[in-house]
Structures are given as structure tokens and as C-alpha cells.
């Protein structure tokens, strides 16, 4: 059985795969294989060249006949079918017809994926291949640059988070407290400051060691977070000292209730390796409405002064700073 001969390969399809072959009237008789990929659903053969291409420059080439007379001139065109691809071309008369060789405009080279074109779709001598390598190199460099920027941004955010976070408890630290406190004052928002110091904590450290103390501090952090609102800020500002900013809350009755709840929860036994740890807390509170012009340093000092009054009165106390810098009568938690 004889094997049928392979169809002859069109030399123009190999040498200039993105071309149109035109008859004497300017109708398309053949489409190069690469050009056909730009408009795979469109019927190109048999149509006039002016139906397929909109000539942007030179002006005035709006008919098949005018395009056929443009031999040797650089044509800037848009393929009407498909994605409206911008191209450049040059027409050469061949016998009674012509060959219109086309290439992609530079603006189209950045997104060849939508055309499903590769380097094999261009003539080996086409400068487009060199441009494609440059575009690919640029895309790779841009991708690497974006990844580097993302890594740097992630590192920056991590560093910022660490700078404002207490490493032992995960609470905010004094730096974060100062930032939020200044912002609240600038925005003239009402708020309260409660300074809290643990009672009996030294006894835990002295009898069970610092590992037990660290365990208790982490438990205290969880209790304080669970006893406050999402809008409040809880910060560890010292070894066993904490400060709470209560946003929008200046009512003493509500603050007294909140303080009593915190003290009650902190007095619950804390287990450490089978040993029960017992602590309590003293609280000093001041509110922004006591000041004509709230000052961060003054308010923190007043809350701290109220805390020391509570400490002198015994454990499980909450003392409120009063107008004129005097501490009000303490609120004792019934233990």
C-alpha cells in the first residue's frame, strides 16, 4: 500500500507566518497560521482586506484598492476581528496579487497568553522574538520584585507587631499604650484608664519560681482580655503591672462593675503543674471627663496614684481618682 505524500508546506507560512495573501482586488486568499490564531473564530479568507484591517496610519487607506496601492509603506493597522489586535505591516506586490506581512505592535507583546502564541509562531528572523525574550525577562524580574516587596512588607508588619507587643503575654506593651492613648486624646474621645497591679504575685515567684510566675502572667493576660471589650486595650507595662484603656466608658458605676468582675476572676485558683497559685489585684482608675484638657502623662500618674492608695488599703481594691487629684473612697471586692 502506497503512503500518500505529505502536503507541501507553504514557504510563506514558514518564513512569514503572520501574513495575508491577497488577490488583484485585495481579497484574502490565504491566511498565515500565526495570524489565524489571532481571530480563530472569524472567517478571514474571501473577505476584502479593508474588512479585516482598520488602517490607523497612513490616513486615507479605507478601501481595498487604496491598500493595494500602498506597496512599500509601513502600515499601522488594527485587526477588526478577535481582540482588536494592533499590528504593523508592509505590502509587497506578487504577480497580480500581493503579500501583506504583519507583526504585532509592541503594546501587544506584554500579553501574548490571550492569543496562545509562542516563539514558534514567529519567523526566526523576526525581531519580535528578541522582544518576547525581553518581555519574559521583564515579567520574571517584576514577579521576583513583587515577591520581594511582599516579603519585605510582611517583615515590616511583623517587626511593627513585635515592637508593640509584650513577648511573654501577647498583650500590647507600653509603646502601644502611649500611641493609642495619644490618639484617643487627639480625637477627644471619652475613656477611662485603669492601672492594675497583681497582689500576692511575688509569693508565687518566690515559692514556685519564675516559670510559674510566667505561667500566671499569661493566665492573667487571658483573663483581662476576656473581661474587657474588643474596643478596649489591655497592655502589660511592667513585671506584674497592667493598664487598661476603656474606650467610651467614663461612668463610675460601670467601671466599678468592670473592676469587680476583673478582681473576682483573677482570684480564681490558677493551676501550675498540679500546684494551686492564688493571686488578686489592686486597681486605680481615672476618667478623661475629669480633665479640661486631658494629658497622657497626668492621667497615667493619677491612675497610678489611685492604685497605690488601693495597695495601702489592702488587696482586691479599686480606687477612683477624684477631681482635684484626690482619690475617692475605694471599692472593695467582697472576697
Automatic annotation (TrEMBL):
Residues 189-323 form the GGDEF domain. Pfam families: GGDEF. InterPro entries: DGC-Regulatory_Protein, GGDEF_dom, HNOB_dom_associated_sf, Nucleotide_cyclase, Rev_trsase/Diguanyl_cyclase. Gene3D superfamilies: 3.30.70.270, Haem NO binding associated domain. It comes from the Bacteria. PANTHER family: DIGUANYLATE CYCLASE DGCT-RELATED, GGDEF DOMAIN-CONTAINING PROTEIN. This is Sensor diguanylate cyclase. It comes from Profundibacterium mesophilum KAUST100406-0324.
